[in-house]
Request: fold
Amino acid sequence: MALNLFRAILETVQDFIAPPLCVLCRQYSEQLLCPSCLTLLEKLRIRPPRCYRCGAPMYGRKCKRCHGIKLPYTLARGAYLYTGPVAHVVEAMKYHGFRSLISWMANQMLPLMEEFTGQLLVPIPLHPTRIRERGFSQTKALVQALSQQTGLPVGELLERTRHTRSQTTLEPQERLRNVRGAFQARVFFPEPVILVDDVMTTGATIKEAAKILLKSGVPRVEVLVFAITP
Reply:
């Protein structure tokens, strides 16, 4: 009883000294994201109709993102468009220490898995240098959160063979060259898998990783990301 009272007093003092703030707007909020910011995020959720292959929103009969392009994965799905407050959420998680967002992000990705057949969650691997710089691997954290929610196992089938430049400032063709030969398969897995990343921009990294998985013997690659660049 006394211990519970002490904890309650301590939490009250902590809230007074450093009240909980929304990650995005930095206004008072009992949750990581306040209702106003959640409303803004909801406007960027990807809803049908979406392209079956790449997961991007469809604005006509042909997908402007992947029509006529051969993809090494069967289908891809993303929860949000990577712009505005969605991009800020990802940046806060990756670069500003708000790792508690990972569980929320995984929850947003979870409903999309109903279309998948893969029985193994495979994270896009980061190079050890990048992990040291960032302090953690966001893709590994995401698959662990998804695994806890679904019961699906995690398989680190890929490894990063070389440290590459950040993709964020590169043009599409530069991105392809940057990641070419950056992955290799670690183990053989003869069943469909779900390849997981936080963001798909041009898709260069995901395509390269999916190609390596197919070459290693994986029969089908499905892609799950938190956000897709419009």
Notes: The first strand starts at residue 75 and ends at 81. The beta strands are 75-81, 121-123, 158-160, 183-185, 193-200, 221-228. DSSP finds eight helices and six strands in the chain.
